[in-house]
Amino acid sequence: MKVYARCNDAGLVEHIFSEVFEAPEETDHLLKEGEGDEYVHVQSQYQLYDQWGRHNYIWDEETGGMRELTEEEKPPKPEQQPSEVEVLRQQVASLLQQVNILTGGAD
Questions:
Q1: 3-state secondary structure labels for all residues of the chain
Q2: How far is the C-alpha of 7 from the C-alpha of 29, rounded, in Å?
Q3: pLDDT tens sequence across 47-73
Q4: CA distances for 105 relative to 23, 25, 91, 95, angstroms
Q5: pLDDT-derived band at 107, boundaries 50, 70, 90
Q6: pTM above 0.90, yes or no
Q7: Can you tell me the distance from the alpha carbon of 58 to that of 60, in angstroms, rounded to the nearest whole number?
């Protein structure tokens, strides 16, 4: 059984699959070959993206293999967004301030 990696134009790995479930395209790269479950159920063996949605692997043409991207090679992490609870707290605080202004209450 053969396992393949499919990359985008930049060489970033976007899909890893076994030939058992999918036929490889001409541009796919042979990743490994062998027998057993590890060559059939391959999706669970690789985390293609990190928690910020950045690619974890790239196909290295020089070595002819897949390698993990270093943190320095990845794009910057996106800025952390406030949680839904924090957004609601900010909205409530703003509304209370408006009510106090309209009713002449304390700020």
A1: CEEEEEECCCCEEEEEEECCCCCCCCCCEEEEECCCHHHCCCHHHCCCECCCCCECEEEECCCCEEEECCCCCCCCCCCCCCCHHHHHHHHHHHHHHHHHHHHCCCC
A2: 8
A3: 999 999 999 999 998 888 999 999 999
A4: 70, 69, 18, 13
A5: low
A6: no
A7: 6
